[in-house]
Amino acid sequence: MAHHRGPRHDLMPLSEKRRLAKDRRQLHHDADVVIVGAGILGCALAVALGNQGRSVLLLERSLKEPDRIVGELLQPGGVAALEKLGLRDCLEEIDAVKVFGYDVIYFGEEVRISYPANALHDGGEIEGDEKSHTDEMRGTKRKRPEGRSFHHGRFIQRLRQKAMEKENVEVVEATATELVRSEYNGQIVGVEATVKGEKDCFFGGLTIIADGYASKFRKEFREDAPVVRSKFWGLELIDAKLPMPNHGHVILGDGAPVLLYQIGTHETRALVDVPDNVPSASIANGGVKGHLKNVVLPSLPAEVRPSFEAAIDRDRLRSMPNSWLPPTTNKQPGLVILGDAMNMRHPLTGGGMTVAFNDAVMFSELLSPTNVPMLDDTDLVLKQMRAFHWQRKGLSSVINILAQALYSLFAADDSQLKALQMGCFHYFKLGGNCIDGPVGLLAGIIRQPFVLFYHFFAVALYAMWIYIMTGSPLLIPVRMLSSVGVFAKACVVIFPYIFSELRT
Predict the structure, then answer these.
(1) For residue 245, how many C-alpha atoms fall within 13 Å in the half-sphere facing its CB?
(2) Cα–Cα distance between 500 and 457 in angstroms, integer?
(3) How many beta carbons lie within 10 A of that of residue 33, not counting itself?
(4) Strand-pair category, 169-173 with 56-60
(5) Which residues form a coiled coil (predicted)?
(6) Residue 42 is inside which H or E element, if any?
(7) DSSP 3-state assignment of 257?
């Protein structure tokens, strides 16, 4: 389908340009950019590009408040990106809870992992709150960085509200069905969609696909599919007594990890990782509900069990696949795939939204009108997307690799992984940089992959040391030989994810 972009009106007054752009969006469904998906990334991009004066069409299948069990914890690095986007107030009026770090509970023994104070990020420091600059000028100690946890749907609705308030952003309830290509060169020029049951088309100089983990467009442009080896099953606990309020809780035992974090004044989210084909969740053993009652419930801290058991009996069980999808470079003229449609990691570390908001910041900077005057300049856009692919890795590769590697350790299912899991917990117990480094990476504050590699292999060496020194002194030579297998397992865990980040 041929599409006429219309004349440029460089000498026209700004008010007239805006009126014409609005007419183009509303009457002709034509804009500078079409974004498919008004989720975390789609809304952030719509606001960021709208702030730059771009005309934006934002399409979303349903504008009702979503009801999901993930996307509920925003790390400090994500809060900082949200502030850069001018969207920090979206965390207000949704009963969000401050998060100061993690409580890791290993077979009943716990260690507090607080976000690091005065952590460096991009040569500056992450703020704990808006007063931190003033505090520093006064010579008082700066607050530690803070994350936020909340109901996903409430947060999404605040983001959508911000997009709707932008003069040059049009939010449309529409289901995108297929991409529209130019009949001259095959370039993507927009999307076909259904609006209230009727077919329609939406055109843009650039089309951005941000339709989430179950993207309907992804498979057209890449051969690999997301890898799923487990699911998170979610429960909502009411008035749960947590061992460490205002902290995320990671509970480690014989099985896969359990996460607990408050998402409102009275609500706490429990996410239970259930690997595929685990025998305790078989139909014969009562399915997932049987697994939750027989395996998970006894492993929880005593004060959490009453609210967890009540939630099992009350809640409808819901799950989300824990997906792994390495990033790839966008190469299709006229099209950019972003967010979970392009890159996913295990949600254990709560890094997805932090990556998304930082991607929105970087994307909008690289494609700003100064760098890319016209978004239908496909050669220039693709050049900037190659830069985007590599520049985002300071943060995204750290969070991607960390999430996958930590999950392998926390869901340990053999003796070598269990040795690494124990080594990881005892490494945290050393305190100091053995906490600040790993949690700085997790929080999206430290953006240096080599810091991740340093701590991961420090954990592996410490695990070897503990493995060698545990038990009878007579067995030390034998255990020294066996410990080589622990280090080899660490390499097997991390190197595939490092290699996946190095490809284009």
Answers:
(1) 8
(2) 19
(3) 23
(4) parallel
(5) none
(6) helix 40-51
(7) coil
